[in-house]
Design brief:
binds histidyl-adenosine monophosphate, alpha+beta, 427 residues
């Protein structure tokens, strides 16, 4: 016997028992996005590798060690399974010149791929819902995105998700801060671990993100970017906070919040929960005013965020959410050569009236088929034997309540089943 094949580590199947909660989540998300006027965009899952190297940044963890990159053997192209959606979304907006028609409010959903060490809440294939607003420079959009998230947590019945905010200022302000930071880190070289020494040269800001306990006191004393912000950046940040205060959304300014992708400026945010262990960040984003130009478009401001679907669904489960899916209306039992053929006509007639029908397959006695019907999620069994088929009729039996079995003509069947299910409403 050949060896059983397994899914790739960190890439999960979502099984039918789990899918209804995913579907409920997706339904809620869709109507939430509609209520803010965002439109759907769908990009390929594979993109040219240089897109991500350029957009996310050469010195980030994602580009350095987490991308699924490969050479297409057929034409030698360097390709990558997308680790995130912002770069692809901006690429699509630039390629199709969407900003010509004015600002764009967009969303996408789908799998992303990162070669991380799998653990609870961290996977190699995971799903994001991403939201991007392009062509709008003001703090009103940053604020809109934060209000959106707060409303979604509410719509999903989730509580205890806290907002952390920071401002990364402008590239010039970051340059100034970087120089001060490098000087500071150089003067504390003996405290830096190996990873941080390497980052000192490539991406010193990321040193502040280190979780190494031995470095925390040193990091605490490092020069803060927030203290280097000029008037315009401060005004932008304060305007975002003013909207949050008006809306009554609590938040914490965290000067150490730097995010793991290089394209950000001004406002950055993360939504965090304590209830998922180490992987508590359910959503992150911010402004990325330089990215459109970096990808080859005319300069345009932009802002967005993405949430981790697995983490939000885990939170819903943790809060007691369960969903066994839509019930089924009819289990169709049929036995005999004429009945087996007539069953198709019966099933299609019922479906044509908006009823859901699981047509028994695989043969077996009436008794064994009725057992299947009982074990199914159906409310009603419709039963066809050869004598019913010959008469153009079917029998109806309620599966979840005591009712006498009835025999009706095909034409009257949908109405009779609907009456049993909904007290008469059909279609
Ligand atoms: P990110 O912070 O890398 O940002 O990812 C967003 C969210 O995706 C995270 O907060 C987390 O919930 C989820 N996530 C990330 N990696 C994993 C993983 N390995 N397993 C499970 N969930 C994960 C971005 O991707 C940016 N594109 C967000 C953005 C959009 N910024 C502006 N626009």
């Amino acid at each position: 016997m050949s060896q059983t094949l397994q899914a790739i580590r960190g890439m999960n199947d979502i099984l039918p028992d789990d899918a209804p909660l995913w579907e409920r989540f997706e339904d809620t998300v869709r109507s939430w996005l509609r209520s803010y006027g965002y439109r759907n965009i769908r990009m390929p899952i594979v993109e040219p590798t240089p897109l991500f190297r350029r957009a996310i940044g050469e010195a980030t963890d994602i580009v350095e060690k987490e991308m699924y990159s490969f050479v297409d053997e057929l034409n030698g192209e360097h390709l990558t399974l997308r680790p995130e959606g912002t770069a692809s979304c901006v690429r699509a907006v630039v390629q199709h010149n969407l900003l010509y028609a004015g600002p764009q409010r967009l969303w996408y959903a789908g799998p992303m791929f990162r070669h991380e060490r799998p653990q609870k809440g961290r996977y190699r294939q995971f799903h994001q819902i991403g939201v991007e607003a392009l062509g709008l420079p003001g703090p009103d959009i940053d604020a809109e995105h934060l209000l959106m998230c707060a409303r979604l947590w509410d719509d999903l019945g989730l509580s205890g998700i806290r907002l952390h905010l920071n401002s990364l200022g402008s590239p010039e302000e970051r340059q100034r801060h970087r120089a001060a930071l490098v000087a500071y880190l150089e003067s504390h070289r003996e405290t830096l671990d190996e990873d941080s020494r390497r980052r000192l040269a490539t991406n010193p800001l990321r040193v502040l993100d280190s979780k190494n306990p031995a470095m925390q006191a040193m990091i605490e004393g490092a020069p803060r970017l927030l203290d280097q912000l000029g008037e315009a950046s401060l005004a932008h940040f304060e305007a975002v906070q003013a909207v949050l205060k008006d809306a009554g959304i609590p938040y914490r300014v965290d000067p150490r919040l730097v995010r793991g992708l290089d394209y950000y400026n001004l406002t950055v945010s993360e939504w965090v929960t304590d209830r998922l262990g180490a992987q508590g960040t359910v959503c992150g984003g911010g402004r990325y005013d330089g990215l459109v130009e970096l990808i080859g478009g005319k300069p345009a401001p932009a802002c967005g965020f993405a949430m981790g679907v697995e983490r939000l669904i885990a939170l819903m489960r943790e809060g007691g959410a369960a969903d066994s899916g839509e019930p089924l209306d009819v289990y169709l039992v049929h036995q005999g050569a004429t009945a087996d053929r007539f069953a198709f006509t019966v099933a299609e007639r019922l479906r044509g009236h908006g009823l859901s029908v699981l047509q028994h397959a695989g043969g077996g006695s009436f008794k064994s088929q009725m057992k299947r019907a009982d074990a199914s999620r159906a409310s009603v069994a419709v039963i066809v034997g050869d004598d019913e088929a010959a008469a153009g009729e079917a029998s109806i039996k309620a599966l979840r309540e005591e009712r006498p079995q009835a025999r009706v003509a095909l034409a009257a069947l949908p109405q009779a089943v609907s009456e049993l299910l909904y007290g008469g409403r059909s279609d």
